[in-house]
Design a protein that fits this description.
184 residues; 5 helices; globular
């Protein structure tokens, strides 16, 4: 069965919003980890906000250092979890998930193909964890305190959720790539 895997850049104080504003560095080891995810995943799951931001950008990237990722994500099937969008036709290969999220994710996971990558979408990641729909959470923990005014991965009043460590790797820039699976 396919797995749903999320990878997020996160600060020491739990911030995931706008990593371009606080990200410590992007090193070779992070690039290799993300490339490895791209090799095992052939579909993408997005929340409304990430879909809305990315649909206007990634289809326009045809050259430069981001061209490889752009090619991959533009050609991959994209599943968009949203209760407010009416259409996702603006980005090729996108499907709007309607109805029960757990049933929709279960159907995708039971289908043919590689794993499913959750791109960005921290609100969706929280929802997937709460509903036991996320199989792996990869956190790229940057050695920075991003500070207030930015959204964190988990709210202060989040329910207890136990995770098991799969692996942890420090990188040359001081970031730690930590992979977890929900304890079940």
């Amino acid at each position: 069965m396919r797995k749903v895997i999320s990878g997020l850049f996160i600060s020491l104080d739990g911030v995931v919003e706008s990593p371009d504003q606080w990200q410590h560095a992007f090193d070779e080891e992070m690039g290799a980890s993300l490339a490895g995810t791209m090799e095992t995943c052939d579909a993408v799951l997005l929340g409304r906000v990430t879909y809305s931001e990315w649909a206007g950008y990634w289809p326009t990237v045809t050259s430069g250092e981001d061209a490889g990722f752009a090619n991959w994500i533009n050609n991959a099937p994209k599943y968009v979890a949203s209760t407010t969008l009416d259409s996702v036709d603006a980005w090729a290969n996108s499907t709007l998930l309607k109805g029960d999220l757990a049933a929709a994710i279960g159907e995708i996971k039971a289908g043919e193909g590689g794993n499913i990558s959750v791109a960005g979408s921290p609100t969706l990641v929280r929802s997937l964890l709460e509903r036991d729909l996320l199989d792996q959470l990869d956190l790229f923990i940057h050695p920075v305190v991003a500070g207030g005014g930015r959204r964190k991965l988990f709210a202060d009043d989040a329910a207890l959720k136990n995770l098991d460590l799969i692996s942890a790797q420090p990188t040359s820039s001081g970031t730690v790539i930590a992979s977890y699976r929900p304890a079940r």
